[in-house]
What we know:
Shape: elongated
Number of helices: 24
Low-confidence stretches: 8-18, 567-571
Distance between the termini: 86 Å
Largest sheet: 8 strands, mixed
Strand order of the largest sheet: 4-3-2-1-5-6-7-8
Mean pLDDT: 88
Structural class: alpha/beta
Helix content: 40-55%
Amino acid sequence: MAIDPVDLWRLVIARQSWRLRSARLRKKAEEARVKGRLRLAQALYRRYLRLRPDDPISWYMLGQVYRDRHRPTLAEPCYHHALTLAPDYWRVHAALGRFLRSTGRAREAHAAFTRAVALGANEQTRRALLDLSAPGLRPDADAAPGAATIWIDIADLLIFLRDNRHPSGIQRVQLELLRQAISRPGLAAIITTMPWDRRIWCLSPSRIAAMLQLLDSKGGGTEAIREVIKDVLETAAEAEPQSGLVLFQPGAFWIGGGNPPLHHRVRAAGMKVVPLIHDLIPVRMPEVCVPELVEEFSVALGEAAHSFDAIIANSAHTAADIGAFMARHGYPLVPVVAVPLAHRLAEAPPGAPVWTRQIASLRDKPFVLCVGTIEPRKNQILLLQVWESLLEQGLEPPLLVIAGKRGWLTDQFDAELEWSPALRKRVRIMSDLSDAEIETLYTQCLFTAFPSLAEGWGLPVGESLARGRVCVCSNRDSMPEVGGAAAITIDPLDVPAAAAVFRRLLFTPGALREAEQTLRENFRPRGWPEVTEAMFTALAGLAGQPGGGLAAPLLRPGIRYRPSSRFEDDWPEPFAFQPRLMLAEGWWKPGPEGAFMAGDRATLHLAVTEDGELGLRFVAREPAEVSAGGVTLSLTLAQPGGMLIVPVKAGRLRLELRARTGLGPEVPPGVWLTAVELRRVSL
C-alpha cells in the first residue's frame, strides 16, 4: 500500500520537531550540570531520556549527576544501563570505576578500569587503574611502622620473586635483611613503593614471615608465591614519611627507571635516603651489559645520586668506586660506608647431600664447579678455553659443571662449545637448581672457579671458601677482598696463566691438599647477623639527623631540555644533567612525547643560572589554558601546542602550574610538557 505524500511529510516534520526538542533538552541539561545546578540537570536529563531512552551518553551523564548529588543507589543503575546500550564505550566503564572506587568497592572498580583501559582509555584512567593495582586494598592492623626508625624498601624483591624460582645475589642480601628486620620490629619496618610514585606502603610483618616460609620450602616463581605476595600487598597500609627516619633501599633502586617523586617527597618530609649499592658495573663496564640495563641504571642513578644522604656499599672496592664516581661527576660527597657481605647463602649448616634427579649424574664423579649466570661478565668462556687447553696438552680434565641460568650475550660461549665435541663431553650446564642442590654441588666438588671480569662483591667466592672448597677466582675488583689469602687469584683474561693454575691443582699430587690447608688457616667466614648488624648500626646513626636539600636541575640559557623517558641528543650524558628531576610533583612518568600533568595542578622544581625568561612548550589534546607565574597560554584545537613564557630570577625556582579545560572536572586536562628552555632577556 502506497504512503500518501502528505502523511509522509507530516511524519518527517513531527520527527524533526521531536529531534529538535530532545536536542534542546540535552543541551540545557549539560549547561545546568556544568554550572552546578544539579537538581535542574537531573530533571532535564530525565525528561530527555523519556524521549531518547537509547542514548548511552545521557544515561552516563545522569549517573554522574546522581553521584554528585550523593545518591549512589540511583547513580549505579544509570551507569549499568549505559553499558547495556554501549558496552564498548570506555568513558562509561571509567565513570563506573570512579563511582565504585568512591563507594569503597575497590575490586569491582579495578575490573571496570581494566575494561576501560582495554578499550583505549585516556592517561587519567590508566593512572586510576594503576592506583587500584597499588597496595593497601585491605590493610592489616600490624601493617604500621610503629617506632621503627629504618624503613626497608623491598619493592624490587617482590617483583623478582613473582617470576623467578631462585633468588640471585641482590635478592639474597635482601632476604637476609628481611629475616633480621622482622625479628626487630622496634628498629626496622618493611615497606614497598611503586615506580614513579610518591606513596609508601608498610607491610605486615606476619605476612612477610609467611612469605619467607613459603619461599624457603617452595621457591619463587610459583602460583603459590604469587598469591602470597598479592596478599602481602593487599594487606599493606599507606604510611606517611616522617622527619628523622631513614628510607633504606637495599635492592635494585633503578627498577622502573628511578623514582624522583618518591625521593623528593621523603626528603621534603625530613627523611634520609640511603641505598645499598652493589656495584657500578653498568656504568663502568657497559659493554658486558645489555643496552636496556645500561640506560635504565644510568638514568636512575644519575637522578637518585642527588638525593642520597649516605650510601652503603657491599665491599671496600665498591665504596671506592662510588666515591670516585660521585667526585668525578660533581655529585654531593656523602658518607659511603663499606659493609662487606657474608660468605654463605644461609646461616644453617649444610646437611646431607641431596642427589636429586637433576644432579644425580654427578654422584661419585670428580668435577670442578662454577656458580653464576652465564653471561660475558661472568667470563665462563675462560674456563672453556682452559679446559680446551688441557685437552690439547693430552690431559684428561674432570667435568666442568656450570651452575647458572642463561643470561644475555651468550653467542660466543655457545660457539666455543659448538666448535669442540671433546669439550662438550666435559662440560655440564645446569640451570634452575635449588639451594639444596647448589649446596650439594659445593660440598662434593673438587674445587670451584669464578673468573668474573667485574663484581661488586662476588658471593660464589665466599660460598665456596665457607664450605672448605678452594676457589680459583679473578684478581679484579672485590674478589681478592672476599677470599683474601685463602683464594687463588688469576688474571681473567690470561688463558695460558690460568690453565697453568688449573693444571697444577688437578694434576700435581698434593697441590689441592696444600691449597685446602692454606684455606683452613687463613679464612674466617662472616655470617649474615654480623653483616646486617653493621648495616643497621650505620643506618641508625643517620636517624634523627636533619634531612638534605631537594634536588633541582640547573638550566643553562640557550639549551632546550626535553623531559623524556629516553636519552636525547641534548642530554646524552645522564650524569651531566637530569631534566626529569624537575617533575617531582604532579606529573606522570615521562614518555617519549614528554610529561603529562597528572591533574589540573603540577609543580616544576628548577634552578636557573641567571635572570631571563623560562620558555615552557606545552601540547594539549583539547582546548585548554595553562598558567604559571601570572602568565596564561591558551591552546586550541587549531593550535594545540604553544610556548608559555614566564619571567624568572636567578636561583632556585618552584614554579606552580595550572591547567584547565572547558570540559569540566571529570575530564583530565590532557596537557603535556614537551620542552623547557631558559632564554636571556634582550637588553
